[in-house]
Prior knowledge:
Elements: E1 4-9, H1 16-21, E2 26-27, E3 29-33, E4 36-40, H2 48-56, E5 61-64, H3 68-80, E6 84-89, H4 97-111, E7 117-121, H5 126-141, H6 146-156, E8 160-166, H7 170-174, H8 180-188, E9 191-197, E10 203-210, H9 212-226, E11 238-241, H10 245-258, E12 266-269, H11 272-278, E13 282-288
Helix pairs in contact: 3-4, 5-6, 9-10
Amino acid sequence: xxxxxLTCCSTVDVSExxxxxxxxxxxxxxxxxxxxxxKDDFGKSNTPRSMFAKMLAGAQATTSQVNVGDYxxxxxxxxxxxxxxxxxxxxxxxxxxxxxxxxxxxxxxQEFPHQKLYIVDSLCASAGYGLxxxxxxxxxxxxxxxxxxxxxxxxxxxxxxSWFFSTDLRFFIKGGRISKTAGTVGSMLHICxxxxxxxxxxxxVKEKIRTKKRASKRVVSLMEETCHNGFDYTxxxxxxxxxxxxxxxxxxxxxAQAFPKAQPAQIFNIGATIGVxxxxxxxxxxxxxxxxxx
Length: 294
């Protein structure tokens, strides 16, 4: 039986059913559409399609991380029941939530001096963050202690390879990820920027590829170059998408053909917090491989 509780935030971008099946409590981020605040709650407040339709119609969108008080309220009942807690956060490279979590943990340490509350900065985003949490749940279930699991996470978290492309650059331009000039030219030429999560957890454009078909194939070749055991890869593959399921399914199909020993790719929706910044049309693919490089 597990000797600790593994928790995460809704920005893990897997499904609520996935977290429930793996006994992983989560806490919701928040986002705003045209001055109305919603929970990033796995699409219950707004389906991804509904949210993106509002954004495309001109709704102003912004996000808000989990604050210190919310973290305290989330963890206090778990600690009060005698549990140790290992929490994994969204990357500090794109959010301040890791620092908020650490501040909350410091406060609760005074209230629960005999309980462990560890915070791990995933240095990952979306379902890459989910891929890390999934692995830690497997370790918890195998009987590893909270200290062993935390130490493994810190040692191996940059082995999550995170690659994504988008067929709609409007919100990357709006968020400053891509310049207006480059985005306009890219849209005209059907260029799909191929981006990844850098070792420090920030986002970076790595290649500019013409057409999503070529971008999909390039993701598969990058997996070949970086994944554990090459074509003999046997671990999990997670894919998340922002209202472009067919594109995600195409990437999953290519991966299944190239890596027959890999576990079938699991496809999830990109949640509201990440989706506000990507907009629709983004496909992100995650696997275990060599530590990420700039």
